[in-house]
Amino acid sequence: MKKVILLFLGLAMLLPAVAQMPQGGQRPGGATPGAGQRPGGPGGANMPQIGIIYGKIQDAQSRQSVEYASVALLRQKDSSVVTGMLSQSNGDFRLENLPFGPFLLRINFMGYKTIFKKVVITPQSLSQDLGNIRLEANAKALNEVQVTGQRSAFQMNIDKKVFNVDRNLTSVGGTAADVLKSVPSVNVDIDGNVQVRNSSPTIFVDGKPSTLTIDQIPADAIESVELITNPSAKYDAEGMSGIINIVLKKNKKAGFNGMLQGGIGTGDKYNAGGNINVRQGKWNVSANYNYNSMRNWGNGTTDRTNFEVPGKSDLNYIHQESDSRSGGLFQFGRFGVDYYLDNRNTISLSQNIVGGTFKNRETLGSTYTNAMMEPTRANTRYSNNEFGFNNYTTTLGFKHLFAEPNKELTADVSVNKSKNRRDGGFNTFNTNLDGDPIGTPYLQSNKSRGTTDFYSFQADYVDPVGKTGKFETGIKGTYRSYSSYYDVFNGENNTAPKIDSLSNDYKYNEQIYAAYVNYSNAINNFGYQVGLRAEQYIYAGEIPSESMKFKPTKAVPGLFPSLYLSYKLQKEQELQLNYSRRVNRPNFFQLIPYRDFSDPLNHRQGNPNLKPEYTNSLEFSYMKTWKKHNFLGSLYYRNTNNLISTINEPIYPGTDTLLTTFVNANKNFSYGAELTMKNQIIPGWDITTNVNLYQTELRVQNEKENYTNSGFSWMAKINSETKLPKNFTFQVTANYQAPTITLPAGSGGGRGGGGGGPMGMIPTSAQGTIKGLSAVDLALKKDFLKSKALSATLSLSDVFNTRQYELDQTSPYFAQNMLRKRESRILRLNVSYRFGKFDTQLFKRRNNRSGGEGMQMDTGGGF
Fold first, then answer.
1. Count of beta carbons in the 10 Å neighbourhood of residue 49
2. What is the DSSP letter of 757?
3. What is the Cα–Cα distance from 406 to 128, expressed in whole angstroms?
4. Strands (DSSP E) found in 61-157
């Protein structure tokens, strides 16, 4: 009886508000605009109604939930009612399908004084938690949220930069490698190797390590790229030049929406895909699928001079030419479910499935010349390889929002399983000087298989302290298990006799356990953040065929501090100084003492006594914001101790075969300046310019080698986007990398039949210079239909066909020039169609009078 009375009282308070709502079955905010109200304005007929506000109503003294309290949302302009409800038995309320604009939330109940709160619904604040609202005599107002315009293609913050991929036209239909080529500060070579400030970053997918490579992630599945050059203690300590986080597309809009897209490119390149998202009540379901098929060509030359070797005068000079053709396809699928237990607790489950198959054929011709530059012999090798992979990632997450704003607890567990396979071989023919085969060909085939299991768990807690402070802490654990075998056979198929000296197998596992704390606060214009991360690393490996097991290496727990200091000046200016300590641990191939013979001219062997290398990174930044311009300038310094370096020496006198091993050398340090400027030249024309100037010093001193290598280099990148009449958008991306010195790069080459001469593994301890390269990409986009739901994009990459890789190297044993070129000038045409209806009643039976109401096209795009 008591609940019936309370329900009656609540309805009595809500009825006057309901009486003010638009009549005739029209949806709130869907009426024809009246005098002084523009169509499409707050509550206008053309405005999407997708906002959500929620909270909990409590008694101020007892903290008990208040059931059946009247909750009404009023327009600020005229106090007309948009919508309303009664609070549930636990005090929860949730108002959905709200239009953009400023409102007043009115809450009242018998025996309590009415509370009003200001609420603003914007594209940047679609879902708002109003916290625990306690009914008492004093009313509290919610701070207004500022409305901002369209999301920028490139957002600059002091601690990180965010590149929004949906605004990047030149990468449409490509892969993550194409996306990263357009990101300021990032350099991607023709092999997909990524560098930031002349060093390799750690690449995450959705904030977690991944076994996917950047050419296995379609560009159309990426929402944004986050570049963090000097991460705080909250992030993993691995990575010499920071972290690149690839954020995949997600959506949680009410109703359903999605996109279909497809494209074609020159040289037999095709892509297709789509995504859909359905949000209703407590459920949010999303799915994404992409298909990419491509063919590519490549060629290159290598000229190598071997210095005088006794007894081998006919091997003084080697000239090689390669020609390759590759092709294949890969598919990327993603499925996700979010279940909202209540307003503040969400469980999420996602599944990624990726797989592909690629084939590669290469012809490699080698000519050997004596000291008089007279050809002495030659051979040609024909390679045929097939590579395939499968990758599965399952993530289960939980998020709890506390009543206090910005206070939250998140936890997730992730399981990643991947497999790769490679089958192939090569035929080597000795030829005369005219190129005709002579003698019996040498046939060799190979077969390799690899599996990786990767498990991770992470929990993070954020607690605001006072008005400006924040305390963060968390734990993380990862376990990786990898096994592989590589078998070589003396014949053209896998039934021929196995060559044990060229075959190998190995297993290893590594564990990393981490915990961190971060505290930040501000005193007037001065802000600070102090953090400390601790990581425990455990590694163990074995070679089953050799019955060799290596005892687990349990490194001393590493401590990685970080410090951020900032000071806000007048006229939208800010200074920041930050420091972090990072680590680069030796990988399995650098540690395993097994000798790899797959490249006859360059053998490789690991060193189980290698130590991790540690980097101290210091950065000073200045940021200035104008109405239409932004500037971010940074001075940075980075030094590395226990540098992991490679050394090369002849295996024994009288041969040109080199053995590459790994040692901890002395120091490597670099310093430079990075300048990033965003300018709006005129309305509709934006330009982002990034310039990085840096000096690198390398010093290697040990009992076998003693040398230094240093040099100055710079990189520039410009992104221009212009809005043209008739719904056209024109985009230009241009970049230039000046000549730069080479640095030790770990294993430095392929395995599994990829060797066979200087075109294979490159001895990376040699002093060398990578020559300068440049490229220009263009794209033109046209939007169709009144809602701009249909779009066509025409793009041309590497307009002048200048993207290539050229390297000069010198060591005590050889001098070498290598030039490699892959297909890079590609014309693509892509078409996409976005659809969607913002309808919270999607799964509910509709009244015949209002069956078509509230359904509007999603003009903001799908996923």
1. 24
2. S
3. 11
4. 70-75, 81-86, 92-98, 101-108, 115-121, 127-135, 154-156
Structure tokens belonging to residue 104: 């007043």
Tokens 């070679």 belong to residue = 543
Q: Which two tokens stand for residue 853?
A: 């109401």
- E strand residue ranges, 112-235: 115-121, 127-135, 154-156, 161-164, 186-188, 194-196, 202-205, 208-209, 222-228
Residue 122 burial class via C-beta count within 10 angstroms: exposed 0-12, middle 13-18, buried 19 and up: middle
Check residue 317 and give its pLDDT.
84
> CA of 393: how far to CAs of 218, 359, 396, 635, in Å?
16, 25, 10, 38
Structure token digits, residue 486: 């590589």
Q: Is the dihedral of CA 209, 212, 213, 216 positive or negative?
A: negative
Measured CA to CA, the distance from residue 518 to residue 159 in angstroms comes to 14
Token pair 């040109």 is at which residue?
A: 656
pLDDT at 793: 93
- β-strands 644-650, 222-228 pairing: unpaired
3-class state of residue 809 by DSSP: strand
- In sequence order, the 6+-apart residues with CB closer than 8 A to the CB of 370 are 313, 314, 316, 317, 376
pLDDT reported for residue 425: 86
Classify burial at 408, counting beta carbons within 10 Å of its beta carbon; exposed 0-12, middle 13-18, buried 19 or more: middle
Phi, psi of 787, rounded to the nearest 5 degrees: -85, 0
Strand partners, 276: 258, 287
CA distances from 341 to 68, 92, 338, 346, 583 (A): 20, 12, 9, 6, 40
Residue tagged 């590669």 (tokens): 360
3-state SS, residue 601:
coil
DSSP string of 774-790, one letter each residue: EEEEEEEEEEESTT--E
Give 116-144 pLDDT, tens digit per residue: 888 888 877 778 888 888 887 443 333 33
Backbone torsion region of residue 5, taken as left when φ is above 0, otherwise alpha when ψ lies between -120 and 50, otherwise beta: alpha
Give the pairing of strands 602-605 and 658-664: parallel
Q: What are phi and psi of 656, to 5 degrees?
A: -100, 10
Identity at 643, one-letter amino acid code: L
Look at residues 412, 504, 407, 419 and name the one whose alpha carbon lies nearest to residue 455: 412
Provide the residue type at 807 as one letter: L
Could you tell me if 7 and 109 are in contact, meaning their C-beta atoms sit under 8 angstroms apart? no
With a cut of 50, list the residues of the chain below it in pLDDT. 1, 4-5, 8-9, 12-13, 15-46, 137-150, 654, 745-765, 838-863
Quote the distance between the C-alpha of residue 601 and its chain's center: 37
CA distance 722 to 153: 12
Contact 60, 136 (CB under 8 A): yes
- Is residue 226 within 8 A of residue 827, CB to CB? The reply is no
By the 10 Å C-beta count (0-12 exposed, 13-18 middle, 19+ buried), 362 is classed as: buried
Cβ distance 275 to 291 under 8 Å? Answer: no
Residue for token pair 């996306």:
179
CB burial of 580-614 (b: ≥16 within 10 Å; e: otherwise) equals bbbbbbbbbbbbbebebbbbebbbbebbeebebbb
- Vertex 748: Cα angle to 820 and 210 (nearest 5): 100
CA atoms of 93 and 113, how far apart (whole Å): 18
Q: β-strands 51-59, 127-135: how paired?
A: parallel
Residue type, 424: G
Provide the Cα torsion 493, 295, 212, 423; round to 10°.
Answer: 0
Phi, psi of 810 (to 5 degrees): -140, 135
